[in-house]
Amino acid sequence: QLRPVESGGGRAQPGESLTLTCAAPEHNVFHYAFTWFHQAPGKEREGVACISINGARTNYSDSVRGRFIITKDKTRNTVNLRMNGLQPTDTGVYFCAASNIGCAYKIDFWGKGTPVTVSS
Questions:
Q1: In the prediction, which pLDDT does 64 show?
Q2: pLDDT at 105
Q3: Residue 118 · residue 17 · CB < 8 Å
Q4: Conformation bin of residue 87: beta by default, left when phi > 0, alpha when psi is -120 to 50
Q5: CA 60 from centroid of its chain's CA atoms
Q6: What is the DSSP letter of 11?
Q7: d(Cα 57, Cα 16) in Å, to the nearest integer?
Q8: Is the separation of the CB atoms in 119 and 59 below 8 Å?
Q9: Which long-range contacts (CB under 8 A, 24 or more apart) does 60-67 make?
Q10: Is 35 helix (H, G, I), strand (E, B) or coil?
Q11: Pairing assessment for the beta strands 10-12 and 114-118 based on DSSP bridges
């Protein structure tokens, strides 16, 4: 069973950048669609970026479009979320999740999350 493992979270100041990484031990990331979810303190989890199974298509929420970039790394077998222009509202826990079918379909596997704090 796929168990996504997130890393790269931490603290940043407004305007700075962070890159989150999602590893898929013993699985090929090009066999699944991956979504990064953001859960702000006291709020529900929200999907912010998704990449298709073959990596050719990406989708972003309005809150991150133009600032965040989701990619798949074939060499490292990871899914990465480059977060630029961070804002305090980006604070929260980021979860990596995988679907067997595609971005618009149910999530089959969840990671445990990595925290991000954006503060001056």
A1: 97
A2: 85
A3: no
A4: beta
A5: 11
A6: E
A7: 26
A8: no
A9: 63/89, 64/90
A10: strand
A11: parallel
48: tokens are: 């912010």
Q: Given this model, what pLDDT does residue 104 score?
A: 80
Q: Which two tokens stand for residue 30?
A: 């090009």
List pLDDT tens digits, range 21-36. 999 999 999 999 999 9
Query: How far is the C-alpha of 105 from the C-alpha of 52, rounded, in Å?
Result: 11
Could you identify the residue written with the tokens 């100041």?
13
Q: Is 29 strand, coil or helix?
A: helix
Q: How far is CA 19 from CA 5, 22, 42, 114, 118, in A?
A: 14, 10, 24, 11, 13
What DSSP letter does each residue of the chain carry, written as one string? ----EEE--EEE-TT--EEEEEE-TTS-GGGSEEEEEEE-TTS-EEEEEEE-TTS--EEE-TTTTTTEEEEEETTTTEEEEEE-S--GGG-EEEEEEEESS-TTS---EE---EEEEE--
Cβ atoms of residues 83 and 71 within 8 Å:
no
Identity (one letter) of the amino acid at 14?
A: P
Q: Do the beta carbons of residue 7 and residue 23 sit within 8 Å?
A: yes
